[in-house]
Design a protein that fits this description.
heterodimer, A: alpha+beta, Sulfite Oxidase, Chain A, domain 2, 5-stranded mixed β-sheet, 5-stranded antiparallel β-sheet, B: alpha+beta, Beta-Lactamase, Heat Shock Protein 90, 3 domains, 17 helices, rod-shaped, Oxidoreductase molybdopterin-binding domain-containing protein (chain A)
Chain lengths: ~170, ~600
């Protein structure tokens, strides 16, 4: 019980550090310089994939096998139905190879997610919540959603910070 | 007192310890579950970070508006930054975040900012550089709000964290106390366990000693002891048993008793065992127990008892005692008793015969007077008349006549003398004074002498002597006795023969014996008399009216037997034939 309390404190401290402004850029220093993205692009994938950079528009993302997931989240009340595609489907389609994926949000929030997460759990990139397309002035256009209610292991703050919303870039390392 | 102490230490203390142990463990577990679940739930709020991000979004929108005013950023950039800020405000208005803001008392401010966002939305959507000052002015309260809210959030979260940690510490302290209690209770339990184990070991030791002692008792018992279960299988077989039956315990234990030895298959023994198994005690005495390789059986006493434990019959126990000595003593006693009885019978017989003899003697003497008056009268009369005639004749008597008459008188006197002799002989015989002096004699001579004497006594009777063989009839005998026997037989024959019939004396013999038969043509002796003829003082039916003592034949047989001979009445002969048999000289 003491140990668990310790873990909790460490977790809180990590989040505090990550909360520093411009943290992602400064800490990693490897975020690919932003290329001009045309307005229709929703998601840009860079790093160890087939082709150096891939820009995907809404149509391309909708073409991926759609998956539905019902779960609660830490920032909302009640359960929600999320629709999107499995992260591993996307990565496999792009022949991504690496240990982790750095997910970057529109506000430059960046998090390293281990590649194993996408294979251990049905992690989806959602574009719709409760039959409403996610918009940019809410959590959209894309939100990484974990099946939190299906796995007790995911009900942990160390997974909660991997739920990147307003996602626009994935860097496979 | 000690017993009460034992109860407290042995039963109550461990029970209390177990109870305390269980209660404390339950409370500790409950506390731990509480802590665990509190950590899980409380860990999800991170409002400081949310507010910081929101502030950054507001600042960047403001900065982008400024850049747009300077022509260094486009309307799209402003729109993007506005959307990001809008998403932050939306986030703050969402469930958990909204409740936190309400808790720290910033909900009114947030509502105003949300309204401001709605007002700004058209401007941001259709942004022109001229809108920038207005936009920046509208954004001014945002930074202040987020800063103050972050401040309050920090304080609230730290208060919350501090409070939570305090709760955890209190709970952990409780748990520690519980654990100490559990340890103490566990210690007490361990102690009682050790004590109980020691006690158990001591009891086991005592039990073992008692068992060893019991086994020793059973094996040392001189009495055979065996036990059987309900199936009739032997479960116990001691050394004495093995010795008696001749089979060691190894061959007996575990096997059916009836198979161990035939003795246990005897119906009486089987019944004893069966009764004991039914709860009945019984005993049997002096049962013969044949052992392998031994001729004479042991004689044993058996006692059968049911083997009970708390009223339940587990089997039967049989005690077997070797009572052979007692049996032998009993046998000896019986034999002694038999011999004693025999002796008594013999003595009684002797006494009877002595009594009989006494009685005979008494009879003899009682009869003596009668006999004297009867037997002696005739010879006396003969002698008297002969002498009277002599006196009457006086000198006229011729010398021949004198000699003849004197001879007759003497002969009568001689007869009287013999009569007295025979009476005395009978008395001597009774007194055991009569002995035999056996010498070599000729039976023919004896027969001649006796016949001549008889002819002289009864000249009118014809007496014939026949010799079946011509050789000498030399026999071993006392001649006086032999003469007396033959005299007796001959005088009887003369006495009982019908008048004018001859009496024959026939001599014959074989290698061992010489015999002398005395035969007359008298009426056959009645069957019922034959048996008693040789008894003392017996007088048969035919002797009525004839003088006699009833002692003659008894004397004759007794005298003949004294010399190794015999006197018999020959059966199946015409008339009556008595036979005297004497051993041949050198053949006895």
């Amino acid at each position: 019980m003491l140990i668990k309390a310790g873990v909790l404190l460490t977790g809180l401290m990590l989040i505090s550090i990550a909360a520093l402004p411009g943290h992602a850029d400064v800490k990693h220093g490897r975020t690919t310089p932003k290329e001009p993205i045309d307005k229709s692009t929703l998601l840009q994938i860079t790093g160890q994939i087939a082709g150096s950079t891939v820009n995907l528009d809404r149509e391309a993302l909708y073409a991926l096998p759609p998956t539905t997931l019902v779960t609660s989240t830490v920032v909302t009340d009640g359960q929600h139905t999320f629709t999107g595609f499995l992260m591993r489907d996307l990565l496999e389609q792009l022949a991504a190879e690496g240990d982790h994926v750095t997910a970057v949000a529109l506000n430059d929030y960046a998090v390293d997610i281990p590649m194993a997460d996408f294979y251990d759990f049905d992690v989806i990139v959602a574009y719709r919540m409760d039959d409403q397309t996610l918009s940019r002035d809410d959590k959209g256009p894309l939100w990484i959603v974990y099946p939190r209610d299906d796995h007790e292991a995911l009900q942990d703050i160390r997974y909660d910070y991997r739920w990147v919303w307003q996602l626009y870039q994935l860097d496979v390392q | 007192m000690r017993r009460v102490g034992n109860t407290i230490f042995g039963v109550i203390l461990p029970l209390v310890a177990v109870l305390v142990f269980a209660v404390l463990l339950t409370f500790s577990l409950m506390r731990m579950f509480e802590v665990e679940s509190a950590m899980r739930v409380e860990a999800e709020k991170n409002m400081l970070w949310v507010l910081h991000q929101s502030e950054v979004a507001a600042l960047r929108l403001s900065a982008t508006a400024m850049l747009a005013e300077l022509g260094k950023a486009g309307a799209d950039d402003v729109s993007l930054r506005f959307d990001i800020l809008a998403s932050r405000v939306a986030l703050l208005n969402d469930g958990p975040q909204r409740r936190f803001i309400e808790k720290i008392g910033f909900d009114d401010d947030l509502d105003r900012l949300s309204d401001a966002m709605v007002e700004m939305a058209p401007t941001a959507a259709h942004f022109s550089p001229g809108d920038a000052p207005r936009l920046r002015a509208a954004l001014a309260p945002f930074s202040r709000f987020f800063g103050r809210a972050a401040n309050a959030a920090m304080i609230a979260e730290w208060d919350d964290l501090g409070g939570r940690l305090e709760t955890y510490r209190a709970q952990l302290r409780q748990i520690i106390a519980f654990l100490i209690g559990i340890m103490v209770a566990g210690g007490i339990l361990a102690l009682t366990l050790v004590l109980a184990l020691r006690q158990t070991r001591q009891r086991n030791h005592m039990l073992r000693r008692e068992r060893d002692f019991s086994a020793l008792l059973i094996s040392s018992s001189g009495e055979g002891i065996l036990a059987v279960d309900h199936a009739g299988r032997c479960t116990l077989w001691n050394g004495a048993m093995a010795e008696m039956v001749g089979k060691p315990a190894k061959q007996a234990v575990g096997r059916a008793l009836t198979e161990v030895a035939g003795f246990f298959d005897i119906s009486t023994v089987r019944r004893g065992v069966a009764q004991a198994l039914d709860g009945e005690t019984s005993q049997q005495t002096l049962q013969p127990l044949f052992q392998q390789g031994r001729d004479a059986p042991l004689h044993v006493d058996l006692r059968f008892f049911p083997l009970r434990d708390d009223g339940v019959i587990l089997g039967a126990i049989v005690f077997i005692y070797d009572a052979s000595d007692r049996h032998t003593a009993q046998q000896q006693d019986a034999a002694d008793r038999d011999r004693l009885e025999e002796l008594v019978v013999e003595r009684t017989r002797d006494l009877d015969s002595a009594l009989q003899r006494e009685k005979s003697a008494a009879d003899l003497y009682r009869n003596f007077a009668a006999m004297v008056s009867h037997q002696f009268r005739t010879p006396l009369a003969v002698a008297d008349s002969a002498l009277q005639r002599l006196i009457r004749r006086g000198t006229r008597a011729a010398p021949d006549e004198v000699a003849e008459r004197a001879g007759r008188a003497r002969s009568a006197i001689a007869g009287l003398t013999r009569l007295v002799e025979s009476t005395l002989d009978a008395a001597r015989l009774d007194a055991g004074q009569l002995g035999a002096r056996r010498v070599k004699c000729d039976l023919g001579d004896i027969a001649e002498v006796v016949s001549a004497r008889q002819r002289e006594a009864t000249p009118e009777r014809k007496i014939m002597i026949q010799y079946a063989i011509t050789e000498h009839y030399s026999v071993l005998c006392d001649p006086t006795h032999a003469e007396q026997v033959l005299e007796n037989l001959l005088s009887n024959a003369v006495k009982y023969a019908p008048p004018d019939t001859p009496v024959s004396v026939i001599l014959h013999g074989n290698a061992q014996h010489a015999s002398c038969d005395v035969h007359n043509a008298g009426a056959p002796i009645a069957e019922e008399d034959r048996e008693h003829l040789f008894e003392r003082n017996y007088r048969g039916a035919s002797s009525v009216g004839i003088a006699g003592t009833g002692i003659g034949l008894f004397m004759a047989r007794t005298l003949a037997r004294m010399q190794g001979g015999e006197v018999t009445l020959q059966p199946f002969s015409e008339g009556v034939t008595f036979r005297m048999t004497l051993p041949r000289f050198g053949r006895e």
